[in-house]
Amino acid sequence: MLAVVVDQVSKAYRRGARALDSVSLEVEEGEVVAVLGPNGAGKTTLARIIATLLAPTGGRVFLMGRDVARSQADVRRILGYVPQGATAPPESTGEEYLAMVATLHGVPASERRARIRELLRWLELAPAGSHLARTYSGGMRRRLDLAAALLHRPPVLIFDEPTTGLDPSSRRHIWNHIKELVRQNGTTLLLTTHYLEEADALADRLVILDRGKVAVSGRPEALKAALGGDRVRLAVPSAQLPAVREALAAGWFDDIPAPTIRGLPDGTTQLEWTLPAGARAAARLTEALHGAAVSVLGIFVYPPSLDDVFQAHTGRTLQEAQEQAIASGMAPEEGRGKAGRPPQRAA
């Protein structure tokens, strides 16, 4: 059964700004799907629409067969939603906050204490349960948010930017809990992220979202394999680039396409190819360039990455897309409410 179906969903704001443009995706039961893209791509808008917190301009969303627009109460009973910002009141203890959320979700009073203790223990927060939320570290706050989303034992979880702002150790901690949740409970998970390694580590399937549209989707390994070979990167002195061009044009490399060429501020130039049997091709290139008296400063061969996939389908790296988002003022995610406040939790 399909747990989540997003069918041609669009979202337009005033003055013609479009956060989403005919986005479609499907998530099977028990599957982990990552929506990857830079800030401003529409990820949080999509998450909030699925979570019933935002109405789309067009299209429909179904959660476990229920129309999200027409069955909001039913959807919220079977959905756990973890928004980006910390949601616990800073002057409440972790236990007090979870008790409040359990009440909002209708968890039976006879089960609340046991469920809270179970989640605090599982998420390694039991010693801090009686402490004020304002004393929690960033990683602890994210785990507390996850506990709140799981109190009513939903079969479907949406996790918006699970580890933004966390240090690498806390990030991996969250990843381990997510993997265990899916393995033990078969939870269906849709997560949004702008971290390549997060998508690679967690996702069964990937949806790349860019400028409000789906650029490509598929299993991470299949998307990488579709690029057609290894990445080969060659560094030479910029002053010797004419000699490199002459050597490449001499007919020795008719089977090798033209490289992408990028000059760097340090006086070096990088040439980059995607080539089958990258190591053998690199050896041929190095030998020929040495024969043409070109000083090869470095040559690197590595398998395709998700950033290569992103670049192949959007025309820019994810880092470049992030920088463009910052320059355009879209770096704060588009899902915030009025006056920059984080969105409220669905209940």
TrEMBL record:
PANTHER family: ABC TRANSPORTER ATP-BINDING PROTEIN, DOXORUBICIN RESISTANCE ATP-BINDING PROTEIN DRRA
Molecular function as annotated in GO: ATP binding
Keyword ATP-binding appears in the UniProt entry: yes
Domain ABC transporter stretches: 4-236
Protein name in the entry: ABC transporter ATP-binding protein
Keywords: ATP-binding, Nucleotide-binding, Transport
Chain segments carrying region Disordered: 324-347
